[in-house]
Amino acid sequence: QVQLQESGPRLVKPSQTLSLTCEVYGASIDSYFCTWIRQPPGKGLEWIGNIHYSGRTIYNPSLKRRITMSVESSGNHFSLKMTSMTAADTALYYCATDVGGSGHLRDWGQGTLVTVSS
Amino acid sequence: QSVLTQPPSASGTPGQRVTISCSGSTSNIGSNDVYWYQQLPTTAPKLLIYSNNQRPSGVPDRFSGSRSGTSASLAISGLRSEDEADYYCASWDDSLSGLYVFGTGTKVTVL
C-alpha cells in the first residue's frame, strides 16, 4: 500500500519561500504523478499542480509564477517550493498520487499545516 | 473562486438517500471526467468516485456517481452516521492551460 508523508516548516515568515517534501513509501515514484493540493483553514480544496517523475509539470495558472515542483532522484520523493509567501497562503498542504496524471487522486498524505506569520 | 458549484449543505436521516449536485460548464464537466472526494472531519480527502461513476476498491456501493451534460451528481443511499463529512467534486478545466478544479464542497449532516 502506498503511503505519502508531507514534511516542511510549520511557520513561514511573510515574503519567505516555502519548501515542502512529499515522501512516497511502498512504491517507486517512477510510477506516479504527484499532485499538490492545499486547503486554507475552514475552506475548500485548491489544486496547486502536478509533476511526473520525468519532471513534466502542470501548474495552477494563478500560482504559476510562484511555484516550482521537482523530483528528487536521490530519494523517493517530490518537492514543492512556493515563493513570496503571504498570510493568504496559510493552509494545510497535501500531496497525492495522481494515476496517469488524469486527476484520479488515489493516495493522499495526511497534510501539513503551514502558517504564514511574522 | 471555484468554477464547480455545489450546494453548501445537505442532510438526511439514517437510511435515507441524499444527492449532491455539482454544476460546471462545457470546458470542465462537459468534456472531462468527474471525481468525487470525501473528507471526514480532521482527515485528508479520500477518493470516492473516479471517471464519473467508478468506485475504488473498498468504497461501499451505497455511493454512486453520475454525469449528464455539464453537471454531475453524487448519491448516498442508506445514509449512515459515518457518512457525515464534506464532499467535493473535481474535474479538469480546458479553458486555461491545464487546471484541475475542485467544487465548492458540500457538508453532509446525518440528522
Annotate the secondary structure layout.
The complex is a heterodimer of chains A (118) and B (111).
Chain A: E1 3-7, E2 11-12, E3 18-25, E4 33-39, E5 46-52, E6 57-59, E7 67-72, E8 77-82, E9 91-98, E10 105-108, E11 112-116
Parallel strand pairs in A: 2-11
Antiparallel strand pairs in A: 1-3, 3-8, 4-5, 4-9, 5-6, 7-8, 9-10, 9-11
Chain B: E1 9-12, E2 18-23, E3 34-39, E4 46-49, E5 63-68, E6 71-76, E7 85-93, E8 99-102, E9 106-110
Parallel strand pairs in B: 1-9
Antiparallel strand pairs in B: 2-6, 3-4, 3-7, 5-6, 7-8, 7-9
Order of helices and strands of chain A: EEEEEEEEEEE
Structural class of chain B: mainly beta
The whole-angstrom Rg of chain A is 13 Å
Low-confidence stretches of chain B: none
Shape of chain B: globular
Largest sheet: number of strands, sense, barrel closure of chain B: 6 strands, mixed
Count of individual helical segments of chain A: 0
Distance linking N and C termini of chain B? 30 Å
Shape of chain A: globular
End-to-end distance of chain A, in Å? 39 Å
Task: Give a summary of the structure in a few sentences.
The complex is a heterodimer of chains A (118) and B (111). Chain A is an all-beta fold.
